[in-house]
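Structure (tokenized):
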């Protein structure tokens, strides 16, 4: 879980760098939009996996109680 949260934070940092790249005209708007969408999707996938693992952990601990 810890590493998944770190990975999700890294996605956020990458999105920040992407905005900077767009601002200084290092990338086109089309490239920005494509990569940004992929990063948003990745953040959602990581977040969903975290939620799934937390729920699974709770179910396992309830069963073992």
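Design, position by position:
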């Amino acid at each position: 879980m810890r590493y998944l949260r770190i990975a999700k934070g890294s996605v956020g940092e990458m999105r920040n760098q992407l905005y900077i790249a767009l601002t200084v005209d290092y990338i086109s708007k089309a490239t920005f939009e494509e990569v940004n969408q992929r990063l948003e999707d990745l953040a959602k996938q990581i977040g969903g996996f975290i939620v799934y693992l937390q729920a699974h952990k709770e179910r396992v601990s309830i069963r073992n109680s």
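Reviewer-requested clarification: The chain has one domain: 2-63. Residues 2-63 form one domain.
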